[in-house]
Task: inverse folding
């Protein structure tokens, strides 16, 4: 089934990092603390990869001009501003970039200075997502991060300056919560600094321990103890309440923004519309056909030579996926036009407990209780969908 | 077709402990005699149920006929009759031993004799079988054949001077074994001219031909044109075919005394042709049946419930079908207020129960909840009547009963003496009465206890293995019923009695069991959307309680473009887990929780 809306968003994956952080399970290529993009250690790897990326962009089918671009990683700020510029040029040449498009670059503290920031902005980047993670050096050390709080403060100062000057349209700060040893008071202090930074957008992620990470190993050795449920819920609730009071609305489970500063690019993922994806490990879904690229450089290069059908993760964005991602949003989902009585019945206990509510004809999770339990609601969606599919195939057999 | 003179037939079986290499040796014998071509050789040919192959144990026995040219240049017929290697199936073992004149006693040359082997060797000796000791796995570095020989001599009193050392894996010693079977196993008694009696030692259900019966002709002849009478079931059948197992079934016209074969006669269920029954001819019946026939008696009971109520008819159909091939399986409908409709099933033992459960899930694709195993209690009522109770939830009220009796077993545990303390501790905890301790060699003992069967069908075997690093082995037999101070321990989940979790325990242990049980349930039942009280009670008195606090956080931190597929997989897994749970009232309970009572000792408490 062709997806009706043509893709107007593109994601570019830059896998390079200085090191792999202890929680990270992304497709990244650590190059060491001394790596640089212009010359010396790692620079050749980066150049070679960028030429692969250029090739992939050039060989993509055509599409309408882009309204959002997101350069993520990895640590894209390891690249020279000119390299970022070339990537944007490649996209502009292929699809065109709409006037006013949102162009986000992920940047990590201690990988750039104010001059480099000015340079990427000059190349057309107008939104920065800053990988701060924490203001506490002990926590940064615990996470395996390379930067320290002074680096973060410096980066924030440059961003605020550029924002005031009008060179930067919006910016976001990432923080990780629910860390081992975290207390409510300690987290409050982190939120104080986050709010003091004036960031108009905050992404606050719960630490999740992914298989194969350093944290996973630590946990299996009993060395990593995450906060108990009650504290975890309190932390999440506190975040939501304090940010709301400061005027940042929780427009998605982990994302908070002042009016007009929600990430347009990320909304595309949660809306079910299509997007382009380029680079190793990147997932694309231009017309609803989701395709995950190989997660290593060699496999990615080979795949570019002869793209295989195997890489297709799933065809079409089925309804259940749309509900799964849609329910992450503040505005939730609509069931209008769907034969979803059975789903509503399944959801009834959640409504009774005040975790799920109907607002203006849409279904949404309450904040913070419902959002903290979203999986409980989502597995009902999965069970309902599987049952519906089963019923469908049975009725087909009957015919 | 078969013109084997009785004097050149040898019928034998292999006695071995699990893992000591019985199946590998059997395969090797088939290969060396050219019965199975090398290229057709699947690992462990004789064990042909998937389940058996996976577990490496023999559950259903099989037989194979081999042609072998001995050192004297004569052709011999060797019938290998395989025996199941588990205590649950000791009756089947005894019947297959009766069909043999000799046995290979296979002992692992590094591990020595185990209780299970011992029990079967004694059975073989009782049946007057010639026993050939074989030390297997001598190619392994830990092998110590001389020590093991001494042990076999000391324990069993068997002359090991001419024991054969072999490696079934490499084939070393296998020709010697074949020759020894010819030389040392007596030929069957020449009773060809007597009236026909054939012993059924195995049967299985074939959906196309009905039950296939494996038998040994003890006297007389059976021809494919005969009409036969099964003396215990008193049923008569026209034979469709008879044949030999070579090892695939091969039709023959006639089989005579001493021979082993199969028959098909459109028999509808294995219960009509039970192991141990005697086949004779309708027009020339034998005067009396062969000795030793007994009906299978279930010793262990449990409830089987489908997780989804609409699978109940499927479960019934599956049990009906399984019973065609499993005469020992008993079942009747059971209704539980907490679980809905299901069946109360009886099994020979725990392994049998596990096998049936696995076959139902695997072959019939059913999602089942199995309740903890229980035994059958004899309840003496105040009005003088006697009630047999195989379901703890149906134990009559205390006011109506005078006393409860429970089945006891005589347990023999065989282990190195350094574990005496650990094993005696275990038996004591399980309400055992010490009977005797025998030193078999200087460092090996047999401990003899009398224990309530109920204490054995829980995790006794696992505990015994754990506490002895796997060195102990056990064997038990039922010795009758004894009165004890037993009470019914109920469990309440969210205020509702969960009858599937009801157990019968000794009064003195009730408090500890109740406490441990609610704690275990707290561990096994996942947090749900609300707080769930868990209580244990005797009658209306709550003796232990705890609660599972409500789940408050279950959320995926991030979910962007590339994550969606992976995150969905996680959710699907969670949904699948939930689907496999049984909804009891508003609480979803996973299968493991129903076995909680078996797991009380995991943490070392209680």
Result:
């Amino acid at each position: 089934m062709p997806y009706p809306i043509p893709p107007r968003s593109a994601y570019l994956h830059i896998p390079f990092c200085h090191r792999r952080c202890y929680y990270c399970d992304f497709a990244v290529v650590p190059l060491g603390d001394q790596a640089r993009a212009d010359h010396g250690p790692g620079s050749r790897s980066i150049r070679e990869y960028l030429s692969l990326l250029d090739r992939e962009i050039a060989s993509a089918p055509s599409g309408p001009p882009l309204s959002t671009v997101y350069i993520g990683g990895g640590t894209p700020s390891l690249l020279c501003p000119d390299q970022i510029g070339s990537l944007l040029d490649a996209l502009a040449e292929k699809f065109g970039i709409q006037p006013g498009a949102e162009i986000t670059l992920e940047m990590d503290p201690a990988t750039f200075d104010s001059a480099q920031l000015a340079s990427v902005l000059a190349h057309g980047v107008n939104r920065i997502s800053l990988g701060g993670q924490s203001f506490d050096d002990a926590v940064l050390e615990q996470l395996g991060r390379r930067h320290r709080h002074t680096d973060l403060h410096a980066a924030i100062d440059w961003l605020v300056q550029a924002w005031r000057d009008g060179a930067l349209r919006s910016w976001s700060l990432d923080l990780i919560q629910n860390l081992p040893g975290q207390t409510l008071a300690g987290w409050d202090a982190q939120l104080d600094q986050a709010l003091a930074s004036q960031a108009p957008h905050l992404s606050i992620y719960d630490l999740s321990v992914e298989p194969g990470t350093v944290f996973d190993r630590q946990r299996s050795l009993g060395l990593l103890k995450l906060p108990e449920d009650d504290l975890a819920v309190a932390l999440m609730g506190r975040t939501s309440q304090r940010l709301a009071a400061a005027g940042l609305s929780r427009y998605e489970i982990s994302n908070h923004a002042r009016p007009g500063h929600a990430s347009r690019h990320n909304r595309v993922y949660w809306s079910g519309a299509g997007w382009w994806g380029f680079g190793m490990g990147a997932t694309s879904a231009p017309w609803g056909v989701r395709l995950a690229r190989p997660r290593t450089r060699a496999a990615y290069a080979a795949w570019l030579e002869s793209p295989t059908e195997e890489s297709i993760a799933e065809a079409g964005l089925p309804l259940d996926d749309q509900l799964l991602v849609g329910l992450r949003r503040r505005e939730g989902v609509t069931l209008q036009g769907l034969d979803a009585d059975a789903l509503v019945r399944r959801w009834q206990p959640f409504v009774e407990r005040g975790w799920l509510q109907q607002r203006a004809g849409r279904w949404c999770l309450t904040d913070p209780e419902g959002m903290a339990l979203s999986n409980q609601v989502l597995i009902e969606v999965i069970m309902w969908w599987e049952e519906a599919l089963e019923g469908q195939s049975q009725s087909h057999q009957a015919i | 077709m078969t013109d084997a003179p009785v004097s050149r037939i040898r019928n034998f079986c292999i006695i071995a402990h699990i893992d000591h290499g019985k199946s590998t040796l059997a395969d090797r014998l088939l290969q060396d005699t050219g019965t199975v071509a090398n290229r057709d050789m699947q690992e462990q040919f004789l064990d042909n149920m998937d389940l058996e192959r996976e577990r490496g144990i023999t559950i259903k026995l099989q037989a194979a006929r081999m042609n072998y040219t001995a050192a004297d240049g004569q052709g011999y017929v060797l019938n290998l009759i395989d025996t199941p290697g588990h205590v649950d199936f000791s009756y089947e073992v005894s019947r297959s031993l009766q069909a043999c004149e000799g046995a290979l006693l296979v002992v692992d040359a590094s591990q020595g004799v185990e209780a299970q082997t011992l029990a079967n060797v004694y059975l073989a000796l009782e049946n007057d079988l010639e026993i050939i000791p074989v030390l297997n796995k001598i190619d392994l570095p830990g092998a110590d054949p001389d020590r093991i020989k001494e042990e076999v001599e000391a324990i069993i009193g068997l002359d090991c001077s001419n024991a054969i050392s072999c490696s079934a894996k490499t084939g070393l010693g296998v020709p010697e074994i074949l020759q020894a079977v010819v030389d040392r196993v007596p030929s069957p008694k020449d009773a060809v001219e007597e009236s026909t009696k054939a012993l059924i030692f195995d049967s299985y259900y074939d959906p196309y031909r009905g039950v296939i019966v494996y038998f040994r002709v003890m006297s007389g002849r059976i021809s494919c044109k005969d009409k036969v009478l099964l003396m215990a079931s008193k049923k008569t059948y026209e034979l469709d075919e008879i044949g030999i197992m070579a090892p695939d079934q091969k039709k023959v016209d006639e089989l005579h005394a001493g021979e082993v074969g199969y028959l098909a006669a459109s028999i509808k269920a294995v219960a009509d042709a039970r192991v141990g029954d005697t086949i004779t001819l309708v027009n020339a019946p034998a005067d009396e049946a062969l000795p030793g026939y007994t009906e299978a008696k279930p010793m262990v009971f449990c409830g089987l419930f489908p997780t989804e109520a609409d699978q109940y008819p499927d479960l019934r159909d599956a049990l009906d079908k399984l019973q065609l091939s499993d005469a020992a399986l008993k079942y009747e409908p059971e209704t539980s207020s907490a679980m809905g409709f299901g069946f109360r099933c009886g099994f020979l033992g725990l392994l049998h129960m596990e096998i049936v459960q696995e076959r139902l899930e695997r072959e019939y694709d059913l999602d089942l909840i199995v309740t903890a195993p229980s035994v059958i209690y004899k309840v003496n009522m105040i009005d003088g009547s006697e009630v047999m109770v195989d379901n703890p939830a149906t134990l009559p009220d205390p006011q109506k009963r005078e006393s409860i009796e429970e089945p006891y077993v005589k347990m023999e545990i065989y282990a190195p003496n350094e574990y005496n303390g650990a094993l005696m501790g275990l038996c004591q905890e399980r309400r055992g009465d010490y009977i005797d301790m025998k030193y078999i060699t200087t460092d090996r003992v047999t401990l003899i206890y009398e224990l309530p069967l109920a204490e054995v069908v829980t995790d006794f075997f696992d505990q015994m293995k754990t506490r002895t690093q796997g060195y102990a082995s056990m064997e038990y037999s039922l010795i009758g019923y004894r009165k004890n101070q037993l009470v019914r321990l109920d469990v309440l989940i969210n205020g509702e009695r969960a009858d599937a979790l009801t157990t019968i325990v000794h009064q003195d242990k009730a408090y500890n069991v109740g406490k441990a049980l609610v704690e275990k349930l707290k561990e096994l039942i996942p947090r749900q959307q609300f707080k769930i009280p868990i209580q244990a009670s005797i009658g209306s008195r709550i003796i232990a309680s705890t609660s599972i606090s409500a789940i408050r956080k279950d959320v995926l931190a991030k979910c962007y473009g590339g994550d969606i597929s992976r995150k969905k997989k996680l959710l699907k897994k969670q949904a699948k887990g939930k689907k496999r749970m049984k909804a009891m009232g508003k609480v979803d309970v996973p299968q493991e929780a129903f076995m909680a009572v078996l797991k009380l000792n995991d943490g070392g408490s209680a």
In short: The radius of gyration of chain A is 22 Å. Chain A has a mean pLDDT of 92. The first strand of chain A starts at residue 9 and ends at 14.
